[in-house]
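can u do me a favor
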């Protein structure tokens, strides 16, 4: 069972012991990401994530930081999303204090040397180029841009080449001194550790301070009609993402939408995988997933199809959306989908890093929401899945699969987007 305590500086320390675990994961999360940026600073959260690894006063170089963790076989990385940023170290359990020491050193004592900032601009621009050359990644950003437009929610997390090149040491310091506020951060310890582990949080992170935290702007989630976003690119297949608006994280139907996504395209036996790939031979990859943010959400199906068969793929996806709204899911299929979701989560939660992630993401998102929301244990989560009925799926499907909330993003050598606009009807 997880436990939580707050330090005097407002920092929340979460401990989640895992019986029999030989590893421990330390995850530090901050309630900030690309949705907290304006147009001029787009990509700053992600760029800063990189700079935390570039040297502290105690460990002056990237090599010094990585060597301390490499010598014990540790795994370490970081990630930036639209609503949070995270840093983690996973090590053999006896090296817990080393993990805490390295992470706290990075987050409290980074130098942000000017020469490292200039050097890292080239690295991040190449990361951006990699994403631009990968349609499977680019299609997700294009779909969110279709949904949210030129707003923080609709812009790419990594920023643009122009904004990346504009960053300087002062912009980084200003961001850290606002957004890395102790009361808007958490430290999660998960895995094999003793009963005094929580006390180490104060030892290593007690110096964090409350800052003048700036909240994100709310998302405009209104939509009066179908939207399209086409990105012309000379590719050998058309990559599409066709979806709808759904619900925010913590909404009563959040799990219902997740079950709808699995039913449609979450497994190799799902409806759209079977229809698009197995029966029609139109795609190699087919997947449907949902994304709940703190104040909005969506469900979308992605696939790579022959350029000349794009219209056929769109019709098939829309037909399956309509079918879910019109016809109740049979008990056998619903039970199979529920067990799939439960089984996948159970497999993940055998690892300390996934346990840390499980609690960390729930708690950090709750810090950004004004509405109270309980932290779900795995057992709570499994019980909520079990309580979802076929009637719930039908009700949610009828609400979300509607014409005015349809959104289509496409990457490929397609020049006439308007011809597909007429197709966006359920």
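np, heres the sequence
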């Amino acid at each position: 069972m997880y436990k939580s305590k707050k330090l005097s500086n407002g920092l929340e320390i979460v401990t989640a012991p895992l019986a029999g675990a030989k590893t421990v994961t330390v995850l530090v999360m901050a309630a900030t990401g690309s949705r907290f940026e304006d147009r001029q600073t787009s990509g700053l959260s992600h760029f800063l994530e990189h700079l935390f690894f570039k040297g502290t006063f105690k460990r002056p170089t990237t090599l010094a930081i990585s060597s301390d963790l490499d010598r014990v076989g540790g795994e370490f990385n970081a990630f930036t999303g639209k609503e949070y940023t995270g840093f983690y170290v996973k090590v053999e359990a006896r090296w817990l204090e080393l993990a805490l020491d390295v992470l706290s050193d990075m987050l409290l004592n980074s130098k942000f040397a000017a020469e490292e900032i200039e050097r890292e601009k080239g690295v991040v621009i190449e990361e951006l180029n990699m994403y631009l050359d990968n349609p499977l990644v680019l299609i997700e950003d294009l779909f969110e841009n279709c949904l949210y437009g030129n707003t923080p929610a609709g812009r790419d997390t990594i920023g643009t080449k122009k904004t990346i090149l504009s960053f300087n040491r002062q912009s980084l310091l200003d961001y850290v001194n606002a957004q890395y506020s102790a009361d808007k951060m958490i430290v999660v310890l998960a895995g094999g550790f003793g009963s005094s582990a929580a006390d180490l949080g104060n030892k290593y992170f007690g110096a964090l301070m409350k800052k003048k935290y700036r909240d994100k702007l709310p998302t405009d989630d209104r939509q009066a009609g179908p939207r399209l976003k086409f990105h012309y690119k000379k590719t050998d297949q058309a990559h599409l993402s066709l979806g709808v608006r759904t619900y925010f994280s913590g909404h009563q139907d959040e799990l219902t939408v997740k079950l709808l996504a699995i039913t449609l395209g979450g497994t190799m036996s799902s409806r759209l995988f079977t229809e698009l790939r197995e029966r029609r031979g139109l795609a190699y990859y087919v997947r449907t997933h949902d994304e709940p943010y703190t104040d909005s959400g969506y469900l979308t199906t992605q696939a790579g199809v022959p350029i000349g068969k794009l219209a056929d793929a769109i019709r098939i996806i829309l037909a399956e959306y309509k079918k879910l709204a019109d016809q109740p899911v049979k008990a056998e299929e619903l039970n199979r989908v529920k067990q799939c979701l439960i089984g996948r989560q159970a497999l993940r939660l055998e690892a300390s890093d996934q346990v840390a992630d499980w609690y960390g993401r729930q708690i950090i998102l709750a810090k950004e929401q004004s509405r109270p929301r309980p932290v779900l244990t795995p057992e709570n989560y499994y019980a909520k899945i079990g309580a979802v009925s076929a009637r719930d799926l039908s009700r949610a499907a009828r609400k979300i699969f509607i014409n005015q909330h349809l959104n289509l993003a496409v990457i490929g050598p397609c020049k006439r987007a308007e011809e597909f606009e007429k197709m966006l009807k359920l």
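The longest helix spans residues 114-132. hope that helps!!
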